[in-house]
Structure formats: C-alpha cells, structure tokens
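Sequence and structure are no longer studied apart. To make this concrete, we show below a single chain and its fold as tokens.
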Amino acid sequence: MSDTTLPVRQLGSTGMHLSTVGLGAWVMGGNDWEYAWGDQDDADSIATVHRAAAAGVNWIDTAPAYGLGHSEDVVGRAVAALPAADRPYLFTKAGLVWDDPGRRTSAPRRVMTAASVRRELEGSLRRLRVDHIDLYQVHWPADGTLLSFGDDPAPAVAATPLEEYWQTMADLRTEGKVRAIGLSNHSVAELVRAERVAHVDAIQPPFSALARQAADEIAWGAAHGTGVIGYQPMHSGLLTGAFDAGRVAALPANDWRRGHPDFTVHLDRNLRVVEALRVVATRHDTTVAAVAVAWTLAWRGVTGAIVGARRPDQVNGWTPAAGLALSQGDLAEVAAAVTDSGAGVGPAWPGVPA
C-alpha cells in the first residue's frame, strides 16, 4: 500500500488522475541494445517500481523498444507482485520495429502499419501481464526511417500516413484494448491532423530546462483538452546536479550519453543552468533533481513528468518535486541562467503556472 499521497492532475479528458511524477522505465531495458544506459540489474528495477508505488507514484511509462521488450517484461513482473489496489497505470508505445530483432545494437525503424501495431500491442499485453493498456502511444511519426538523432536516412519502407495510423489507434480504443491513446514526439501540425481523425487523449514531448522546444505542443494540448506528460525533465540525468566532465568521462562505454553533445560540447553551458537550479534547491531545502522536475511541472498544460530511476533510493530524490511550488522569483532565476548561458532551445519562462 502507498505510504505517501502525491498531488494528482487529470490526464486530459480520460478520467485518469495521475500523480504529477511518473516512473520512466527506459533504463530497465538493460544494457545490450543501441540506446542503453549501461548495465542494469533486474532486481534493482523491480525494487524501484515497488518503491515508486509505495511513494505514491501511480503510473509507469515504458515501451517495447526499451531493450526489445525487456523493460516491459520487468515492469510486468514488478507490477504483478503488487496488491491489485496498488498497481499503477501502465503506459507503453508502438511504432519502433527492428528489421532484425537479433541485431540488438542496430537502430529500429519507425513503422505504424495496422498489422504491425496490432502485433506490437499483443506483445506488450503479454509482457506487461494485463488485458488492456491504460495509455497507448505512437512513439515517433511513422516515416519508415531508422531512428536516429541526426539526419535520418531515406525511408527503406513506405511511410504510413498519420491519418491511417491514428485511425488504427482510435480503433484499438473503441475495441477496449487500450483505454486512451497518445502521440509522442509529434509536432503541432501533426497533432492538428490527428485531432481531425480522433481525439488525442495525451501527448508526450521531451521537456526540460535544457530542452524547451515543445512549448507550442504543450500549449496546443492545454487548448484541446489533451493531457501532456513530459519526458526527460532531468535531461537524462544532467539536471540532477551530479554531472561534471569527470562524471561524463567515467560513464560506461555502453551508455549512450558518453557521445551526446549535451554531455560533451555543450556541457559547460548546461552546467550553468544546473548551478541556478542548485541555488533554488538550497532555498527550498530540496534536491537539484526535484527543482528540475518542478520546473517542468510549472508549465501551464503539463499533467505530469516522467522521471527515471535505476535504484529505489533514487526515487527519493525526485518525488518531492510532485508538491514543490516554485515561486516567480525561482522561475526568473532559472530563466536568467537559461538566457545568459544560451543553453537549449525554446522559451525560458513558463508563463502562467499549471
């Protein structure tokens, strides 16, 4: 049973009330795939799920792409061990498919054909050990390309039109296989097109003090009764206050962050924002991580923030963010650091608090 009550916000018009922080399960995919975070022990992952549930976190976000199903399997085992009344909502995704599942170090392709989506859904239901998914999301726009964070290659398979794959998602909702449907990493223009087909229950953009480019998508969600769950509010750990050049150099070779520009060429300017968060954290007698997450939650329209953890003790570092209200002065200090450092892209000020 949960030993803590966290603040909740309604996810759009779905009727689900989410704790303002949710547990992200990317790291639980393990170490032997393209976008791994280094070694991860399944026992630690399961204990982390249980600790988060005990802390009042009532939703978990995962995906079959995280370790080619391993994250979902671990989450499924962890949740099945909880009393039914304490089990969190389960959110997962579709649309990233490996051409050859045996090549775990290759990149997945963005595919959302109806047959592929239904096949993925059945796999997710089996691994998560449930009969429906609470929120089923399109992981990336289905253009047929390999997932990459640079220039995508030309599609090797035909793209699926958004209207077509969103209708498939809406059909799954009508059939009761999923409770709600959402779009992750989609632009405002794409959200507008999807809404013409069926209501967008939720969106999932990346959003942190170092990655603010989804401000327009968040505003769209607020205007259309669409829930918003932001991912990477701690910017893959960079906004925890635990990183410097030495820590980056010490990351395992199989941790994708070792070569990412935010942890290398842009590290100095990003750490200037971290120092502003540290000042605010000291004022509130809390952690840098909690302030980073609270900053994301301060944006009007944000329902909740996805936060990862490797071990149970790490949950304690960010759950205080759920109830942390940053003042206008706090937000102004962070905005000044963002502007002065030139870190990230997008507006530095959250406007009207959520």
Observations:
- The mean pLDDT is 90.
- The chain has one domain: 8-244+288-325.
- The CA atoms of residues 7 and 19 lie 6 Å apart.
